[in-house]
Structure formats: C-alpha cells, structure tokens
Amino acid sequence: MAKDDAHQDALSPEIQEVMRSLITAIRAVKLYPPNNPIYSQSSAKAYELLARFLETAPEYHVGVHKTFFTYHDTPFGKDAALNKAIAQDLFAKEVREIVFSEGIVKEDLMVLLKALALSSEEMAMKSGISSILWEQGASHIKVVESGLDEVIATKAEQGWDKKPPVESSVDAGGKSREKKASLFAGRTLVLGTLMDDPEGFGASMLELARQTRGENESVEDRLYSLYQEAGQKIREEHPDQSDMLFEGLAKSVLSLEPHFREGVVAGKLYADLDAELATAHIADGADQVPNKLQEVQAGRFSHDWNVQHVATLLKKTPGKKSAPPAAVPDPAAFVVTPIPVDITGKIAPDLAAYTQEEMEALKAMSGVGMEADIIQAAVRTLIFLIPLVKNPHGSASEQKEIKLFSGVIRQLEELLGYLQKKKEYELAAVIIRAFHSTVDPVFKPRMTEALKKTASKSAVTDMVAEMMKHPPGSAEYNAAYFYLQTLDRAGTSLLLDLLAEEEARDVRLFLINILKELGKNQVALIGELLSDRRWYVVRNAVRILGDTGTEQAIAFLQKVADHKDVRIREEVIQAVLNIGGRKAAGILARYLKDKNEDIRVSALRGIGTLQGLGDTEAHYVMGYAELRPLKQREQEHTLETIEVLGKIGGRETAEFLARYTRVRWWKPRKLQDELRTAALGAIEEINRRLADAGRAER
User: Fold this and answer.
1) What is the pTM of this model?
2) Cα dist. 30→142, 305, 503 in Å?
3) Backbone φ, ψ for residue 671 (5° rounding)
4) In angstroms, rounded to a whole number, what is the distance separating the alpha carbons of residues 325 and 221?
5) pLDDT digits (tens, 9 = 90+) for 75-117
6) Could you write out the DSSP letters of every residue in 434-475?
7) For the chain, what are the domain ranges?
8) 181-184 and 141-145 as β-strands: parallel, antiparallel, unpaired?
9) Cβ partners under 8 Å of residue 181, min gap 6
C-alpha cells in the first residue's frame, strides 16, 4: 500500500485526474450504449481534461500492463483493483501504450474509445487498432501494439542449471510438504511453478532459450527443444499427473509473445503433425486438389487455439531433441561451372514470337493481378511502407531514401489512376488520405507533388457524372462523395469551377447540393468567389454559404449585401434567413432602406420569421415604420410592419405602437381604424409574450 502511495505522489493531481477520466471513458463506452448519458458525459469529461493537459505538455502517455496502467514508467496505483479488468482487456488486445499529442479533437478521442470497445476478433478483422485510427484520420493518437512496435525486455530469471531452494507449504492437516521438482539434463523444472504460474514459466523458458541457443540456432528452435525436453520428462517421471502438467505447459506456451507463440504452435507443433498427416495422405494415394488435409490446414486461425488443443499437440510431440541447424557452408567450397561463351547463340534459335494462344494466356495472367483483393492488398502494403522508408538507424544516403520514397509514391499514383478508371472511389480515397499523412521534411516536396496530381478536373467530372447515376445514400454515391471529401480544398475548388461553367440546370443544382455539405468546413474558400465579376457565380456562392448554416458565413455575406444586381441581393436575403440569428437580422435591416420595393418587403417579412430578436432589432423596424405615410397604397405595407413589430418587439416596441391607437380627426378615419386595430393586436401579443415566464424576448 505504501508503494502505491509513493507512485501516486510521483504523479501530479492533474495527471492522475486525466488518467482516471480516460479509464472511466474507456469503461463507459464499452459497457453503455451511445444514447446513455454516462456514455457521452464520461467521454466529454475525458476530452476536456486531456485537452487542458495538452495545452501545457506536448504529449500524454498511457502505458498498459497486465493488471495496471502507467504514466510513462510510473504506475497509476489509485483504484488499481477497479482498473484491473479494463487493463487486462486492453493488454489481451495487444495494446501496450497510448500516446495523445497536442491538437487532438473530440472526434479523435471517440474513434479511439469506440475502437477499444471492439472485441479482439473484430479488431483483428480491421488489422488492429492502429489501422482503425489511421483510416479514421485520428493522427494525434498513437497506439503501440505488441505485435508491431513493442520490444519486451525480460529480466533474466534463475538459470535451469541452478537448483532452486525447496519451498514448503502446510496442508489442511498441518503437515508440511515439499513442492515436487523434476531434475533433468542438469536443469530444474519446478512443477509447482508450472502449475501455479504458467506465464512465469513461459517467460523463464523464453529467456533460457535466448541465453542457451546455439550459434546457428534460432530462438524459436531452441524454445521448441526446451518444451520437447519438458514434455519428455513429464512422460517419464510424472505419468500420473501428465494431463494436468501438459495443460500447464500449454498455458505457458499461449502466454508467450505473439511472435514466439505462433512460432512454437504453428511453426513447430502443427508442422510435426502436418508432416505425419502428409505422409499418411501420400500413402493413401489421394492426389485430389483440394483435399481434406488442405482444408484442415487452411482453416486454422491463431485466435482459435486453446489450452486443450496445444496440450494435445505437446503430448504428440516426439521426445527427442531437435537437431540444431547445420552451419552455413563456405561459399568457397562450392564447385562453380563456367557459363559457355556461346550460350546465347545456342538459346536464341529456340526463341520465337508468342503465338496467339500464348498471348491470350499472358493477358489472362496479367489480369489476375488486377483483382480487387490483390489491388487492396497492394495499396495497404504500399501505404504501410510510407513511414518506414526513413530509417534513422540505417546507413542509406538521403538521396537513396528519397528515391525509394518516390518509388513507393509513384506506385500509389499508378494505382490511384487505375482505381479512378474503375470507379473504385472508396479505396482511392484511402490513397488520398495517405498522401495527407505527415512525412519527413525531405519527402515533403514529393508528397506535395502527388497531392497536386490527385485533383484533376477530368476525374472530378467523371465522378460527378457517376454520382448522378446513383441515388444519394447508395454505396456507389457514398464512395464517390467520400473521395470528394478527401480531396478537401482542391476538390471543392474544382467543383466550384465546374459549377461556374456548367450550362445544364439539373447538373448545377446537383453540384450546389454537394457543395452545401462540403462547404461547411471551407467557408473562406467559397467566400473568395463573392468578388467574381460573373453575377451567376456570385449567386451560387451566396446560395452555398447560406446553406452551410454557419455564422462564419455572415461575415462574407455582409461584403456582398450591397451588390448592384438585385438578384444577388435577393439571394443574400434567402441566405441569411437560412442561417438565422441576430447577425442575420442586422443584414436584413440594411435592406429596409433599399431602393427596390420588393427587396424591402422581403427583408421586412424575413425579420418577422427570425427567432430570438428583441427591442434592439425592433428599432430598425420602428424607424422604417415612421417613414410609412398614411396613404391607401401604403396601408397594406404599414399593417405588415406593425404585425412584424408585434412578433419581435418588447416593452419599448409596445410604447411605440401606442401611437397608432390614437385617432386624429384631420386624418382619414378608416385608415386610422385599421392601424389602431392592428396596433392593439400587436401590443396584446407583446404583453402575452412578456407575461409568459417573464421573457422579454422571443
């Protein structure tokens, strides 16, 4: 307990609070559905604390061990028992460290939390959590997995050549008994250790294999030999306990690191079994392909291995020690036969042009290399190689590394062109995202060049034509739309150019609908079109800005509010009405003084539809109402102005409307009565709204 307290003292309260909130969020996302308040509250709190911490530090490291978490190398001991289950779950999924860097957004954290909630099988199907984060664009989170980046340093255990002290324990009758030990080949196999701690036994076996392997012997070969010796001694000296001991031996094998576990089980145990089965298969004379043996071998998966399977394989393992591999022969010992000088003259006459059948066969063979699964494997392999070209520990020159990197990118460019022709936009978008990844500065020019090539006008034109063939929401439509999203600013610029040049109305409307969604994050880019000399280009830009629904667009719409073309001003009114708010009311108030009557009427009616206005905005309309003369042709417009004041005004507006309730004898009585009736109705509406929970504004 004192040790845990010491660890806690080493961590600042802020670090502990971030760690606690992250663990709580991981647990909540795994246990609760998204509509549960705990789900959203825990993740929101975790992001808030993490973002606050990253304002003062570049990174936050969360280490994952079998039963606890650490910050860097310092254990997080508080609530260790409570956190044990979630630590074991992450450790079983081969997560060893999570690094958060500054710049992280809430969406990145949610991607991580949802990925950690997946089962081991689901995570394996998606190529691990690192692949999930990369595909979702969570670039500010790095996850170290045991199968990829982890280097486990195992402390040297006591060697087998040293006999451990005899441990004693007391049974129920009070008699002490010694743990059984089996001695063989000058080493000690502690059966109690195998039964009580198979994981520790496996770690000791691995360390011993590393220390005692031969010059030309791999660690896997030596480890397999040690397990063969252990199995042989169990058979010879403890046949009555062999089942229990072989199960412990199997548990120790399954507890090994993934690389060594698969090397022993798949590379050694199953290899011996397959050799026996193949011999029997050949003896039976079965040569049909595929056969049962091939189906059995192809149906094995590492996640299906269990203790019973491995224990059975260990029992069938021959007891004799595997012979170490032979030494590498000396090249000088080989007998080299010189190539005849006239060899080309002998071979050339036998070479002839391909026949038609041979050409067809070659075309078929080359076509096999373009199958979807092969293309996808090639794309993901090349993307995986991008960060590996720069090797800080390598001796290659910078020019050679640039050449290698350029070769990888060139192959991706060729695959991208092929995918665009085949309209495989979903996989093509994965390549585009790879081109946006962070690379070493020396590779940046080549990556920038590749990005410029991705956004071609012809490709985007073909993509839009393809999208118009499919309904929104379909797989084909979504794949093409995702590709356009990935192109980001370059794709939006091309779509805007196409919109300016397109003559067909249906295509223009389709492009506008696409740009409505894409433009939400690129308001500044669309705002640049407001200074275009072509009125229809400006109109389209205004329409798109209005449909984005963001207040950021208001600042750009103000610049074009006084455009000389009445069609542009009408479009601005519709745009600000779509956005709404008090800033929109400010732009509409400017149009109350417009020289065009239709613009004034549209602006007035628009103000009446906005929510959340009050006396401040009503002052604009009151100033407009004071200018309305008491004439029959203006009466309808004045009545509409009073109605708008009743919808948006407060106490000051009610006092202003009171002037219309007084009838003056020298003015037309009928017109005054109509205004009086409208004003009383508007005042009543204002009083009702003010009395409703004391709200002075709508």
Assistant:
1) 0.37
2) 20, 25, 52
3) -65, -40
4) 9
5) 886 566 777 888 888 888 888 899 999 889 988 899 999 989 8
6) HHTS---GGGHHHHHHHHHHH--HHHHHHHHHHHHTS-TTSH
7) 2-145, 179-316, 606-698
8) unpaired
9) 163, 164, 166, 188, 189, 190, 191, 192
